[in-house]
Design a protein that fits this description.
Layout (H helix, E strand, L loop, with lengths): L3 H8 L7 H6 L13 H6 L3 E2 L8 E3 L7 H17 L2 E5 L5 H15 L3 H5 L10 E4 L14 E8 L13 H25 L6 H4 L6 E8 L9 E6 L5 E6 L5 E5 L2 E4 L7 E5 L1 H6 L9 E4 L6 E8 L30 H11 L13
Parallel strand pairs: 1-10, 2-3
Antiparallel strand pairs: 3-11, 4-5, 5-6, 6-13, 7-12, 8-11, 8-13, 9-10, 9-12
Helix pairs in contact: 4-7, 5-7
GO molecular function: dioxygenase activity; metal ion binding
InterPro entries: DIOX_N (IPR026992), IPNS-like_FE2OG_OXY (IPR044861), IPNS-like_sf (IPR027443), Oxoglu/Fe-dep_dioxygenase_dom (IPR005123)
Protein name: Fe2OG dioxygenase domain-containing protein
């Protein structure tokens, strides 16, 4: 018989810290290492459905028709970035077949022989491809109910042999399309700020792309844990692909709002770096993922961030947005410096961005 105590003992071995093995062992209780403190569990209760608050949905179909149509899309992005910090895009140009293949690639990797997956296991961040349970497991009070693998896809793509065969082609193909979409989004966000189209790209916001694929196994007691704890992203923007199971929520006007899955849509959220650079004009949205008895849930997050890779660019509030009435609210930073502190803090429900306020 598999008991919670025996599973907890297994979890103390780094190589055993992946949830898929625990689920396959048919556990019926959440191991204590993944349990949330009572105050966090209380925070899980208040939320509203998308019918009460609607996450903005922006259609890119008319974007290239004429200047008026583009201005309409820019205005919708501006409103979403200022009021929500998140929106969904449809007709974005990434083929449905590419979206499906990257999700399938995540499943294919997790269906691999345990020894194959174990060869990629790490709780660090070095390497072109790493597989882990929780990057924050040793800095937070509890683990999250998910397994993940990640790779840096830009500016220096990995060698093909560095990626597992199960997801190699899907990661390269999806990243190619995300970089193209990201270029367009940074243009539109620049215009939404009243700046030239190329401003954000000229400030090296596209200097790095970190692709993180999450695998949320079914949870026997979803009320006792979270798939991902409340946090904001240490990115400029994040492009997220989620499957149809759901569970992603954002904090809006002190309410947790479901980000309802839309077939073929991509979720775009503003990250900490862009909130800092826009001097609070755009919002880095707090979000979380609920655990679920149904699964596995698959999501693919593309972080526009050089993370802890070398990047000497110094970022701060964009000078063109400042004035006597709107002085800088944040100190300058480099991405590796910010990311190091963000990771050390862990996903503890607090914002690391606040530490850079003047």
């Amino acid at each position: 018989m598999v008991t919670t105590n025996s599973i907890e003992l297994e979890c103390k071995s780094l190589e055993q810290k992946n949830l898929e093995d625990l689920v396959e062992a048919q556990i019926t209780e959440v191991p204590p290492i993944f349990g949330l403190p009572p105050i966090t569990l209380d925070d899980k209760k208040p939320h509203v459905s998308a019918s009460s608050f609607a996450i903005p949905i922006i259609d890119f179909a008319s974007l290239h028709e004429d200047a008026v149509s583009r201005e309409g899309v820019v205005e919708k992005i501006k409103e979403a970035a200022e009021k929500w910090g998140i929106f969904q895009v449809i007709n974005h140009g990434v083929p449905l077949s590419v979206l499906e293949d990257i999700k399938d690639g995540v499943v294919r990797f997790h269906d691999e022989d345990p020894e194959v997956k174990k060869s990629y296991f790490s709780h660090g961040f070095s390497g072109n491809f790493v597989y882990h349970n929780n990057f924050e497991l040793y800095s937070s009070k509890s683990g999250n109910w998910r397994d993940s693998f990640a790779g840096y896809m830009a500016p220096y793509p990995p060698n093909p042999e560095d990626l597992p065969v199960a997801c190699r082609d899907a990661m390269f193909e999806y990243s190619k399309h995300v970089l193209s979409l990201g270029s367009l989004l940074f243009q539109l966000l620049s215009e939404a700020l009243g700046l030239s189209s190329e401003m954000l790209k000229s400030l090296d916001c596209m200097k790095g792309l970190h692709l993180i694929c999450h695998y949320y196994p079914p949870c026997p007691q979803p009320e006792l844990t979270l798939g991902t704890s409340k946090h904001t992203d240490n990115t400029f923007i994040t492009i997220l692909l989620q499957d149809q199971i759901g569970g992603l929520q954002v904090l809006h006007q002190d309410c947790w709002v479901d980000v309802t899955p839309i077939p073929g849509a991509l979720v775009i959220n503003i990250g900490d770096f862009l909130q800092l650079m826009t001097n609070d004009k755009f919002i880095s949205v707090e979000h979380r993922v609920l655990a679920n008895k149904v699964g596995p849930r698959i999501s693919v997050a593309c972080f526009f961030s050089s993370s802890m890779n070398p990047n000497s660019t110094v970022y701060g509030p964009i000078k063109e947005l400042l004035s006597e009435e709107n002085p800088p609210k944040y100190k300058e930073f480099t991405v590796p410096e910010y990311t190091k502190g963000y990771i050390e803090k862990g996903l503890d429900g607090t914002s690391y961005l606040s530490r850079y306020r003047i």
